Amino acid sequence: MVSAQLTDGEALRRARDAIEEHGWEAVTMEQLAAALGVSRMTLHRRGVRREHVLRALGALLQDDYRRALWPALTAAGSGRERLESGLRGLCGVTEANLALLAALDSAERDEIFHADGEQVLTHAVFTEPLQALLRDGVADGTLALDPGDSVEEVATVLFNLLAWTYRHLRLAHRWPPARAAQAVTRRAVRSVAA
User: Fold this and answer.
1) Contact call for residues 169 and 183 (beta carbons, < 8 A)
2) Per the UniProt record, which residue ranges are transmembrane (predicted)?
3) Superfamily of domain 58-190, CATH level 4
């Protein structure tokens, strides 16, 4: 049974804050329960485990990402302009979740972002908006893919190029958000510019 707290965005943001503060491996169910506004025993009785919290945070991240990309998907302008806007939105979501993404181990990040299989792509929920923007840009002549490239693979590369590099510049190099966003967005767009 999924607890109502795992569908409450504000409660989940507090749980995200607890994970950011303590790290995924160190955060306790008691700390997560307090962040969710219930007791640890309430979570236990409802069958809520750490992996349920992780899945709920993944769903919250997906919702944040959809909201951030929606303006680019519905805006007027060229595919290139809209792709740049969408990539800036991705930087914003990455910024809002910097500490969470840093607190998770690769296995937890894989569960949120990667499809199953040998040579996997990023989950479609994260790349489909970029795929749509790429297709629009190719159609209007402002973006181009290399021969043999699939839009799905290019969207996966752009998503990872942007999110990982932005995160690295913010955390390891301590660049301010605007500088990191401008640097990665500009270079990512140039990589597919016509």
Assistant:
1) yes
2) none
3) Tetracycline Repressor, domain 2 (1.10.357.10)
